[in-house]
Design goal:
α3 (47-58) packs antiparallel against α16 (374-388) and α4 (102-115) crosses α11. The chain is 28% helix and 23% strand. By secondary structure, it is α+β, with helices and mostly antiparallel strands. The N and C termini lie far apart (69 Å). It has helices spanning 2-11, 39-45, 47-58, 102-115, 125-128, 137-142, 145-149, 161-165, 170-176, 193-207, 211-220, 232-237, 264-267, 273-284, 297-300, 374-388, 395-402, and strands at residues 62-69, 72-80, 96-97, 246-248, 251-253, 270-271, 288-289, 292-293, 308-311, 321-323, 328-331, 337-345, 349-356, 361-367, 433-435, 443-448, 451-456, 461-464, 466-469, 472-479, 482-493, 496-499, 509-511.
Length: 512
């Protein structure tokens, strides 16, 4: 009986021809319900209203949207402004920073190389990067390109991101990953930008070039993505570009600049929605574009199919969420596979795309504001309209709740007032010295103009320390991973100091 079930799942039924009303497709390809009539056209007709409503309710400065269906771009439009200081309008050619939407683009670059037998998803990283290591030698030997693209290496969540904030370059961050504790290999999921970056570097080494040049040569140029680049300098040089904005005092302001070059394979791409329609067209055509195979379908398939459970169900009736190689892979309530990915920079970028292969449709939304769930809400409502002819979920509330704390200041003491009668600190000279930490590098505590300071980082940044209570001080932070208003507690204990913001993995102790 088991053999019969497997045969039916793989091949459909055998024997006499079924009635014409029955499908001869494999059951896994059959959705739970048919698409409504004129599904895509009717959904597109509502996009202007959805976009304008979301822009008004959120106050974000700019957004660009595009839809691909039937091998054509049916919708491409800009809303709002690129920069609130100039009021220049967003259009479909406006270039946005994509943040983590870079990962599925990177996965297609890798799939191109897999299809050319330059590398495999199962190639061990140390075969091409012999200097790379993790804290467990056994894991180091087994770790593959695919493991890193599926976020199943065991590295902690967002490993290395704070090192990038401190000015460390790509190689320096990747070298330090060997110092981090590991969770279970291949059975745990933790999202890591620098894991994907290490995989990208592995593929570039196999190709004998840089990642940035490889992506341009094998993906952007063949697809005619003329304004797309994996280099921050190219984004800066664009005339028609969207500047990042953060929410301060109730309005979005262009305060910060995000240079993602250290993690370029994972988050460094910039592109317009017009350019991204070329990539989405290729994805819907299973790797082909304008009649030319850009990515071998067999090499692309592992990227867009489940490789690890990323969101386990909390109830038996819930659908699981999966991650492929650089793609979120899920199943819609209508029983269709959805491929997707979001991107976010706290300094002012939020992006999302959704592909529904069985409906031959894809949508992408790019914004120039700190993440608040707006592009995800728009693509979710569009996907509902395509599959059901109506919006079935309160996506606006769901994403409002999901993103509620993402831009909140971090730190135990953020937003709090110091004690009215604090315990007196020791003389400032008692804290002065150089404190060592293998992962973060040295931290130097000094007295400058009567103020205690802490200097840390690749090109040391100096933070004034404000006394809080006894041997506890605070330092104000604003980085890509610490929104405005963030505060880190700095505690001196004997010859050690602990910096709270660096201590998530118990790595934040510096010793004098």
């Amino acid at each position: 009986m088991l053999g019969l079930v497997v045969m039916l799942a793989a091949c459909g039924t055998s024997g006499p021809a079924p009635a014409k009303s029955l499908s001869d497709e494999p059951p896994q390809l059959i959705p739970a319900m048919a698409l409504p009539d004129n599904a895509v056209a009717n959904a597109i007709a509502k996009l202007d209203g959805i976009a304008e409503d979301l822009m008004k309710s959120s106050g974000i400065p700019g957004m660009a949207i595009a839809v691909v269906h039937g091998g054509k771009t049916l919708y491409a439009k800009g809303f709002g402004v690129r920069d609130t200081r100039t009021a220049d309008k967003v259009d479909p050619d406006t270039v946005f920073q994509l943040a983590s939407l870079s990962k599925p683009l990177a996965a297609t670059v890798v799939a191109n190389q897999v299809g050319k037998n330059i590398i495999s998803w199962d190639t061990p990283v140390i075969d091409k990067l012999p200097w790379f290591a993790l804290s467990d030698p056994a894991v180091t030997r087994m770790l593959t390109v695919g493991d890193l693209f599926a976020h199943r290496s065991g590295l902690p969540d967002h490993a290395g991101d704070l090192l990038e904030d401190l000015g460390f370059d790509r190689r320096s961050v990747l070298d330090r990953l060997r110092l981090l504790p590991l969770a279970q290999f291949r059975t745990s999921y933790a999202y890591t930008n620098f894991g994907v970056t290490a995989a990208g570097e592995t593929v570039a080494a196999a190709a004998g070039t840089t990642w940035e040049d490889l992506a341009q040569r094998v993906l952007y140029r063949p697809l005619g993505m003329s304004s797309t680049s994996s280099r921050f300098a190219d984004f800066v040089a664009r005339t028609d570009k969207a500047v990042g904005h953060v929410l301060i005092d109730g309005r979005y302001q262009p305060r910060f600049t995000r240079d993602p070059d250290p993690q370029s394979p994972a988050g460094g791409v910039s592109a317009s929605v017009n350019d991204l329609t070329h990539w989405l067209t290729m994805m819907l055509a299973d790797g082909s574009y304008n009649g030319t195979v850009v990515v071998d379908p067999a090499a692309l398939l592992p990227a867009v199919t489940p490789q690890i459970v990323s969101t386990p169900p909390s109830r038996p009736a819930m659908r699981s969420g999966f991650y492929g190689y650089g793609f979120n892979v899920g199943t819609s309530p209508a029983g269709r596979v959805r491929l997707s990915h979001s991107g976010a920079f706290d300094f002012g970028a939020a992006t999302n795309f959704v592909i529904i292969p069985a409906a031959d449709v894809a949508i992408v939304a790019l914004t120039n504001a700190a993440p608040s769930g707006i592009p995800e809400t728009l693509t979710a409502e569009f996907a509902d309209l395509v599959e059901f002819g109506e919006v079935r979920e309160d996506w606006r509330t769901l994403y409002d709740d999901a993103f509620a704390g993402i831009n909140a200041p971090i730190g135990e003491l953020a937003g709090k007032q110091p004690p009215i009668t604090p315990i007196q600190m020791r003389p400032l000279v008692a804290y002065v010295g150089t404190y060592a930490n293998d992962y973060w590098g040295p931290a130097t505590v000094a007295v400058e103009g009567g103020t205690l300071t802490l200097s840390v980082g690749a090109q040391p940044r100096t933070y004034p320390l404000t006394h809080w209570d006894g041997d506890v001080f605070t330092m104000d932070l604003t980085t890509e991973n610490a929104p405005p208003g963030s505060v880190s507690k700095v505690t001196f204990t004997g010859n050690d100091l602990t910096v709270e913001v660096f201590d998530d993995d118990k790595m934040g102790i510096f010793s004098r």
